[in-house]
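TASK: fixed-backbone design
INPUT:
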C-alpha cells in the first residue's frame, strides 16, 4: 500500500502530541480520509474549503475490526 504524506504546521503537530493518550489519532484520521475520498469520488471538483469536519454522537465500530 502506498503511503501519502502531507505537511502540517508546527502548532498543529504540537496539538496532536498534546492529545490525551486515550485518543487514537490514527483511527480518527482513517475514518476522516475514508469519508473525504468517498466525497471526492462523487464530486472530484470539490475544493478544501468545501469540507467541514464535525462529529456525531453515533459510535462507528467499523474501524475496530481492522486491528
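OUTPUT:
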Amino acid at each position: 500500500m502506498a503511503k501519502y504524506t502531507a505537511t502540517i504546521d508546527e502548532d498543529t503537530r504540537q496539538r496532536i502530541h498534546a492529545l490525551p493518550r486515550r485518543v487514537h489519532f490514527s483511527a480518527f484520521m482513517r475514518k476522516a480520509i475514508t469519508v473525504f475520498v468517498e466525497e471526492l469520488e462523487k464530486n472530484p471538483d470539490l475544493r478544501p474549503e468545501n469540507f467541514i469536519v464535525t462529529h456525531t454522537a453515533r459510535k462507528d465500530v467499523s474501524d475496530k475490526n481492522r486491528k
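COMMENT: DSSP finds two helices and no strands in the chain.
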